[in-house]
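Annex B. Sample input.
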Amino acid sequence: MELYSFQVVLQTNLVPANKCTFSYAPRTSRLVSLLKERELRKLNTSFRSNAISCDGNIKTEPFADELCLSDGNDCRSINDESYQGFNNAPSDETESKEKKPTKQRLLVVANRLPVSAVRKGEDSWELKMSVGGLVSALLGMKEFEATWIGWAGIDVPDKIGQEALTKALAKKGCIPVFLDEDTAEKYYNGYCNNILWPVFHYLGLPEEDQLSTTLSFQSQFDAYKKANQMFADAVNEHYQEGDVVWCHDYHLMFLPRYLKALNSKMKVGWFLHTPFPSSEIYRMLPSRSELLRSVLAADLVGFHTYDYARHFVSACTRILGLEGTPEGVEDQGKLTHVAAFPVGIDPDRFIHTLELPQVQQHIKELKERFAGRKVMLGVDRLDMIKGIPQKILAFEKFLEENPSWRDKVVLLQLAAPSRTDVPEYQKLKGHVHEIVGRINGRFGTLTSVPIHHLDQSIDFHELCALYAVTDVALVTSIRDGMNLVSYEFAACQASKKGVLILSEFAGAAQSLGAGAILVNPWNIIEVAASFRYALDMAADEREKRHRHNFNYVITHTAQAWAETFISELNDTIVKAQLRTAQVPPLLPTNNAIDCYLQSNNRLVILGFSSTLTEPVDSQGRGLDQIKEMELKLHPKLKEPLKRLCDDPKTTVVVLSGSKRDILDNNFGDYNMCLAAENGSFLRFTTGEWVTAVPDNLNMDWVESVKHVFEYFTERTPRSYFELRETSLVWNYKYADTEFGRLQARDLLQYLWTGPISNAAVEVVQGRRSVEVRAIGVSKGAAIERILREIVQNKGMKEPIDYVLCIGNFLRKDEDIFKFFEPAASEASDKAKTSVSDNQEKITGNQKVGDHGQHEMTVLHEEDSLILTLKSERYFSCAVGKKRSDARFFLGSGNDLIMFLEKLANSS
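Annex B, continued. Sample output.
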């Protein structure tokens, strides 16, 4: 069951990176830009293809080694002396003097720099670049000036060594973050590799005894946050206005939050290179809420596939209780855009390498070595998620069932060593060796064995040659973020046109699934059958499958991936700025207090639920339903609220949808006015409750609606309904998010076609509630009645000249904010309305002021002015939400507490 009916716009024909984004409809300006990019990409691809087909050679720039992505591709290295880093200075002096447009700076922040540093002396270092996909992407982005920020991977405790390494890395466009040995151990080997990585790959958390023998979870988590703060400080030190900050992977989930805390205007994107697990797996993390909220501080959050993006949105909805939208996740008016950006490789590098003489010689030798046999190839890190045992067992099953193939096929398995000091990896290595030995002993001969297994990585040139002679490539990961081995194989198969067998649990399955044979690696029989199918496949089918994969790989490159992500990030920032322009400003607390002190008769109207209530569930768990349902005044508000109520110049009103007894229990000891059930019942705490609803109010609909609410409460676990005197409320806040929404939809359809089809009621939808109330019952309508009660009970001698209205109200009830909107007219600030014994309705004059057309409400009682309000002395404020009709907002209940304490202390 899907959480949202996302319209997934597969932009394969629009942008090279096949970006899957959540969108209802394409934006015109964005679409035009993407179409232009597509045409340019087609021209470049056509040129490259022609160059390949004409002379077999491609003129390319020297490539730097690239970052090892955390989805686990084996790490190969080269040592390119000509590499100049990301920010190459122009070699031609004349060219350097030419005026060029300023490039946008891109700060790439990853756990590791794409550099291996070896100390040669007290103040000298030898640098060697590393291999991966990200560096090639950045090298191809000519319109950006890229700088890489990360950990060098070694402990440099002395200042001389740090200064020397910083100076050496600066020439490569890199900035180091120096982590001490203890922090690095707990942060990287501890929290990242022992906690986050297993959970993100569906392996679960380590057992408690394993944690206790190494380091406690809390110390690892503290080190993780400390390291992220150090990365943030390094970014902030080098940040310039207008820079784009691109954070990478699960090592830096706190980084967006820390960066935004340092500079809220910073452009921040975060990309995850691993899978993001389903919410049921992710919720095991003890720090689940903190991590999610930290990532949501980014402007754009990217994943390899739509599934990972969907899981992230689902986790935010189920765990944090936030709203998922077609574009991402919304929290108090802030939208974090969530989208899928499948990464690619640099295919030109592989195609070019195949033409080198030494690689051609390797190809010739391999063909001679395996003449007369089909070559099946696996290239993996020796890791639990790579499915190496499943692959080898399937090969054994294939040999059992197909005796005729035993001397005609060979499996070459490269297993690059990984985390050799970890017992689980040592056990895996022994297990794989045992299986390989058994199969070779069972099916091998004196002159040949069916499996060649190497516990090592090989030279890049040898790897390309191996790809080129392979007939069937095997990728059987049981969970993989992307797995670019499948892309590399396709790039090297122009001549052979071999077959790709690909696990459906690898991210690449969503990109290359049409051209590959998809398998479930846990189904050994199915995988073995796919081996036979691939080996017997006709040439025309191999050609079609290869053509699809090859075209995808050469079009959806690493460069296109990076360009699409940065382009989308810039576009997201523009949209966010437009949204921000519609958000009311923060409450100017000092100004509100100054006006409060200058006034003589003040009216303070406060909501109750989610405004004055005691906070519960600070971790976003939503587990203590009983406690949350019992509304209680926040302990820290009792004293400031009492001082405000005791001020003779101030009238405090608590206006709530709650029932009378709830308000009595919480505010009975205060000198204030209580308005229960949205103002249907009024009471000054010195008197009795007064009914403020018409005597002829028709409530015949209550019983039928009650039966409907009871039925859906029984069908929806953890939902409940509240029967009030003028309304009924069905709440599904604690129910399963997806199921609750479906039930609410069914409930509304049933109500409108049955019990309330002809009743004088209105339905008010809250965030996770449905309320049915009599027409005319709202907080805004109640204000008139409240003002009359104030007049009758307080015998005011001066008109009200200051109004403060604060609450977290339903959209329907926000008419209370508009009720007091005065017209800021210099010509006249006194529109008069009479209330006499024979006239119960209130009317007013409309004027145009700073806030548009507003109704200036002024009351008279027996020729005595009751309310006269200037625009600058009216403060309406929403708490905890930014989409509101209020003039201002406060971010949380804690902000409200601080404001009311300050206000009470000032009087």
